[in-house]
């Protein structure tokens, strides 16, 4: 068991046993999702957001959103909006005001100067062009370039002169000797010898902070207790730890979650199809299914259990179940997961999710659908079992909303191959159903089974051609339910139309 969990459990026990009311601020975990708004919310980001959110919900913590918009050239408002939209669609709402990193540049600047004052950093007047030249030289020799601190060393007099002449300088962190290590909640002990870390810039000569400083300064200010993010950030972590230490701030815990790969084992990218969460929103996925699927990208509950709704995810989620190995994004599994959730969610929850899709498809107006709520919910229950996506439901729903159906050529050639006999059976079916006083399941079934007996054929020989007449396809919910949901008059008209079609 990882230390964080132990810490929480013991805090919980101590509180209840002693009966002392601790201020919740002392123990409440604070986690954050810190996207850079340079594109849409992609699957990997949403997964990282979800893990943090689940952790916060599980431990009565606080989930924060920080938009890392310091890269002005690449950050866009459109992307920020897409991130908000994606998170909102998934229900991953944040608990405090959004923090915009770019708005904190004065603090970043002040923190860099604090490090300068306490000796943890120094001014580097070396022109960037000189550093570029040295780097190119080292690379030409096949060496890795590492900034040599002695290059920045100036006598007091030279320093005073430079400052007096307002020469531009960057602020570099003075990496101390030793080893920087931490107990990662996923990877356990990770250690970096400090000699491998160069004295990195924390503030550029134009006064803008470098990524690692901005992140640490913000995480300290936001009182983040655990940093959970993609393992592509592992190499930043030692630098960040050194900054925490130099700023005299307590370290958060770190959990580095695995990357997500496409089915071909390559890093997930556009080549693998839709990777933006917003795309899935419009592909007819349920947010609950997407969350369940995302949760399993790099985490498992310690059993074979896969289909989980949100309360169960919250209950079972823990950093113990996080994987070290990269996860594979499998769209087939996502579809399967969605099918599972379609069958699982309460109908009253599903109804408002599917309704806009039916309206968008032009089947019906929202107010008309509201007026037929009971009918609609019943239909949804029939259709969802054969559907993997909301789009599947919409497709299957067409015959119940439209006056006419389109016949699928395959269904026609399979069930109406012998047009004459199909036409006869359909006409007889039409006559029987038309003679019924009520449009009830039992009565319809009884009369059509009696017809089959009279014609000396199996029920299927009646139901299959009838199905094509009603929905145009060879598959549908039970035929009597179909009749019921299409309704008496429309079903009879459809039978007439089928007979007429077969006569041509
Ligand atoms: N903005 C960084 C990213 O999008 C995340 C930084 C962090 O989580 O510390 O990769």
Itemize the secondary structure elements and their pairings:
Elements lengths: L2 H16 L5 H4 L2 E4 L9 H16 L3 E6 L9 H14 L8 E2 L4 H13 L3 E4 L3 H14 L14 H9 L5 E4 L5 E6 L3 E6 L7 E3 L7 H11 L4 E5 L6 H11 L5 E5 L2 E2 L15 H5 L5 H9 L14 H7 L10 E2 L2 H14 L2 H14 L5 H6 L1 H12 L5 H12 L7 H7 L3 H16 L6 H15 L3 H13 L7 H8 L1 H16 L1
Parallel strand pairs: 1-2, 2-3, 9-10, 11-12
Antiparallel strand pairs: 4-5, 5-8, 6-7
Helix pairs in contact: 5-8, 8-9, 11-13, 14-16, 14-17, 16-17, 19-20, 19-21, 19-23, 20-21, 20-22, 21-22
Bound molecules: glutamic acid.
Q: List low-pLDDT spans.
A: 1-25
Calculate Rg over CA atoms.
Answer: 32 Å
Structural class given helices, strands, pairing?
A: mainly alpha
**CATH-level-4 superfamily name of the largest domain:** HUPs
Bound molecules: glutamic acid
Core attributes:
single chain; 504 residues; mainly alpha; Rossmann fold; Arc Repressor Mutant, subunit A; 3-stranded parallel beta sheet; 3-stranded antiparallel beta sheet; 12 strands; 10% strand; binds glutamic acid
Give an overview of the whole structure:
Strand 2 (62-67), helix 4 and strand 3 form a beta-alpha-beta unit. The chain has 23 helices and 12 strands. The protein has a 3-stranded parallel beta sheet with strand order 1-2-3. The protein has a 3-stranded antiparallel beta sheet with strand order 4-5-8. The protein has a two-stranded antiparallel sheet with strand order 6-7. The model is unreliable at 1-25 (pLDDT under 50). It has 3 domains: 1-94 and 211-345, Rossmann fold; 346-385; 403-503, Arc Repressor Mutant, subunit A (Orthogonal Bundle), CATH 1.10.10. By secondary structure, the chain is mainly alpha-helical. The structure holds glutamic acid (GLU). Glutamic acid (GLU) binds next to strand 9.
